Amino acid sequence: MTDILLEIKDVVKVYGDYTALNKVNLTIPKGSIYGLLGPNGAGKTTLMRIINQITAPDSGSVIFNGEVLQREHISMIGYLPEERGLYKKMKVGEQALYLAQLKGMSYSEALEKLKYWFKKFEIIEWWPKKVEELSKGMAQKIQFIVTILHKPKLLIFDEPFSGFDPINAALIRKEILNLRELGTTIIFSTHRMESVEEICDRIALINNAETILEGAIEDIKKDFEQNTYQIATKNNTLTESKEFIIKKHEDQIFYIEINSNFSKKDLITTLNQNNDIISFKKHTPSMEEIFIKAIKNG
Amino acid sequence: MDKIWLIIKREYLIRVKKKSFVVMTILGPILMAALIITPTLLTMQDQQDRVIAISGNQLDFLEPLNDIENTHFSIIPQEEIEALKQDFSNTNYYALLDFENENFIIYSDQQISLSIKRSISRKIEKVIERKKLKKAGINLKILEESITKIKIQTKIVNVDGESINSSTEASMGIGFITGILIYFFIFMYGTMVMRGVIEEKTNRIVEVIISSVKPFQLMMGKIIGVALVGLSQFTLWIVLTVIISAIAEIFLLNPSDIINEANSINNAKVLVQVNELIGGINLIQIGSCFFFYFLSGYLMYSSLFAAVGSAVDAEADTQQFVLPITIPLILAIMLIQPVMDNPDGSLAFWLSIIPFTSPVIMMVRLPFGVESWELVISMLSITVSFILSTYLAAKIYRTGILMYGKKTTYKELWKWLTYKG
Q1: What is the predicted ipTM?
Q2: Angle ∠(B176,B182,B186) on CA atoms, nearest 5
Q3: Which domain, by its residues, includes B129?
Q4: Chain A partners within 8 Å of B204 (Cβ)
Q5: Domain containing A200 — which CATH number?
Q6: How confident is the model at residue B317 (pLDDT cuts 50, 70, 90)?
Q7: Which residues of A touch B (CB under 8 A)?
Q8: Position A295 in a domain
C-alpha cells in the first residue's frame, strides 16, 4: 500500500472539437485536503466527473487506492457536485434513505446513521417534511450529510460553501476538517481562495484543460515569493535603481521585484544608500495572487 | 442490479402514491362507462313525440304518410298553415311541411335535424314512387312480395378444419379499441417518463444520482417504474370497469326484470350471441399481443421521450423534438380506417412491420386474423427496434442530463451520440 489515494495520469477528455482535459496529471496523498482550482471552464468539473465515473477518459488512467478505477469504487467515493439538488416533492427522510441506499448502504444502517447526523445538525424535525418546504441552506445540509454518510475514503466537494450562511459554512468547515482527522482524503474545488488557504494541504491549478501548478501550498508559495519584497520608507518615496523594479505602490508600501542578476545583499545595500527604510520584508503572496499570476503566465 | 430495483421502486411508488394517480384510476372507468352509457341515455330521452304539420290543401296526396318512429304527421287547414308560417311559439308543432312552386319546404322555429329531414324526404319519395307505379298499372302487392332481405353470415375456417362464426363488425370494434388504447398508453406513459427526466434535471439532483448509479440504470429504472405504473393502472381500470358496469346494470335494469326468469333466459341468449359474434376472434391472442405491443412500443417510445427530456432544460422546449416522435403514432391512428378496409393489403402489412406504427396497426389487424409469420416478423422488428432505440437514447441521455443552459439542436444531439462513455 502506498500513501497515494488517487493518481491521475495523462488523462485526456475531448468533446467533439473541444478539449476539456489535456494530459492532466495529479497525485493526491491519503488524508490530505486537496484544492482543485481553476477558472470557469478549465476542466475541473470534467475531472471530478471522471473520478466519479460519470464519464470516462478518452485516454490516460486513474488509479484509486492502488487499483485501476472501477465500478466497485463508487461506494468508497462521496461526491457533492456544484449543481446539486433534491427531489422537491419527496420527503426529506425518505429521500436521504434513498440516496444512501443508492450508495450501497443497507436500509437499517442508513437509517441509523442518518438519524445520528440529523440530530447532530439539529434538523431531525425536518425528517417528515417535503424538500420544497426547506430553505436552500437546509437542503444543502441534507446534501452534505448524504455525501459523507457512507464514510467514503475519498470525498469530492465542488463549491461546498455556496449557499451557506457564515455560521453554517463554519459548521461544514469544521466537519470537513474532522473528516480529514479521521483519515478521509478530500478533493475540494472552489473559487474562494481564502478557504483554500485555510484548509487545503495541496493544490492543483487547472487552466485551459492543463495542470499549470501542482504541489503543497507552502512550496507553491515559496516558489512565488522568491523575488518580491515589501518596503516602507519614512517619506513614502523610493529612489529607483538598476537592482530592482517597482511592481506597485499601495498603502504606503512598495512592492519591488529584484532583478535576477543581483542578490538580496546588493538590494539591501542599494536601498539603504538611497532611502530611509523603516521596514523591509519578503512578500508572501496570497493564493489569489498566485492564482491570477499563474493563469496570466500560463 | 440492487440499485436499479431501488430506482424502479422509487419511480413506481412516487407515482402510485400521487393523488392524481388515484383520481385518474377511479375516474378512468367512470369516464369510460359514461362514454358508453351516455349515448344510450340520451337516445332514451330523445323519445319525445314530434308532430309535423302538413298543409291539407296542397299535400293531401301525402295522406298515407306513416309515422317515422316518434315523428307523426298531421294535416291541418290552410288558415292555420299561414299562421304557423308567421309564428311557431303558440303551437305544439315541431315543423311544417309545405309544397310551394314545385318544392317541398320545411318550416320550423329551430334547425331540423338531418336525420328527420332525410327520413321525411325518403318517405315522400316512396309515396310518390308508389303513386306513379300504381298509375302505370303495377300491382303493389306483387311488388311488396318481391322485396327480399338476406343476411350473410361469415365463418372462418381454422387449421383444424373447423369453421367458426365470425363477425366483421366485432373485429373492427375490437381492433379499433385496442389500437387506440395502445396509442393512448404509449403517449401518456411516454410523456410521463419525459417529464420525470426533466424534473430530475431541473431539480439538479441528477448528478448526485449518477455518481452512484450509471445513467443507463437511472433511465431504465425510470422507464420500467413507469411501465409498472401503467400496468397497475390498466389492471385497476379493468377491475373497476367490470365492477362499475355490473353496478350500473343493476341500477339501469328494472329490478322486477332481474327476478323475471323469462328475462334471464333472454339475457343468456344475448350472451350466447355475443359469444358467437366474437367466436372467430382469438381473445387470448389479442390479450397477450396487447400486452406485448404495449410494452415493446412503450419501451421504444419512452426511451426516445427520455432522450428528449434529457436534452432540454424545461418542458416548454420539448416541442421540436417531440413532434418527430409523435408523427408516426398519429399517422398510425389516421391510417386505422384504410387498414380496416383491407386488413391483408400491403399498406396494412408494412405498417404492422414498421416498428413505429406496428403496435397500433398490428392490434387493428389482429381480430381479422394475421398469419403467424407476419406476427413473428413484426414482433422481432419491434424488439430489435426498442433495443436499438434504448441504446441510442441512453447515449443522448447520458450527455444531455449534464448539459445546462445550452439550447440543444439536432446537430448537437448527433454529436452526443458519438461521444465516448
Answers
A1: 0.82
A2: 150
A3: 48-146
A4: 83-85
A5: 3.40.50.300
A6: confident
A7: 15-16, 49, 52-56, 58, 74, 77, 79-81, 83-90, 98-99, 101-104, 143, 146
A8: no
